[in-house]
Design goal:
mainly alpha; 6 helices; elongated
Length: about 180
């Protein structure tokens, strides 16, 4: 059940990240053509920066799900398994605590923003653009919790926590060169 939810969550996050990347790319290309033709889009800079922030938050949640974000697995792996688990738990509590705090503060920011709107697109509420803060933080927490059981299992093992350095890269051969 957990693996199924994790897979669905991963696919959803991948879809959102790919959609945002494609949308941002299209927006930048369209804006360049408009600018080159002498008709700059007045709203481009503001919308592109918002989309980049959204991409950052949603992609960080996807990275957390695959544990592809910054980590110190080497430090944990240098410890005995009996010490690895408590330090992993401390790290998880700190990370999840930080992102829960970020979500709470993000909601407070939305309250403060009240009736503000974007400068260039006055019909777009700033609450919509800044909603990525609490939403992204909650998604990050969900991703951490979904990936935690596997991290705990690895921390308990003699081998330790697999990191990026453990991924085997195939050597080039005449067939794939």
């Amino acid at each position: 059940m957990l693996a199924r939810f994790q897979n669905t969550f991963k696919k959803l996050m991948e879809f959102i990240v790919i959609f945002l990347m494609i949308s941002l790319s299209v927006l930048v290309i369209v804006a360049v053509f408009y600018r080159k033709s002498g008709m700059s889009l007045s709203w481009y800079d503001e919308v592109a920066s918002v989309m980049l922030a959204w991409l950052t938050y949603y992609a960080s949640a996807l990275a957390a799900l695959t544990r592809g974000h910054i980590g110190f697995n080497g430090l944990l792996n240098a410890m005995k398994p009996s010490l690895r688990v408590p330090f992993l738990l401390i790290g998880e509590v700190l990370i999840i605590g930080f992102f829960l705090l970020l979500a709470w503060v993000g909601v407070e920011v939305l309250v403060i923003l009240g009736g503000d709107n974007l400068t260039s697109l006055t019909w777009v509420p700033t609450r919509l653009t800044q909603s990525v803060i609490p939403i992204g933080a909650v998604l990050f927490v969900i991703a951490q919790l979904l990936s935690f059981p596997d991290m705990l299992r690895q921390a308990r093992s003699e081998r330790g926590i697999a990191g990026h350095e453990d991924v085997e890269i195939p050597e080039e051969s005449p067939e794939n060169a």
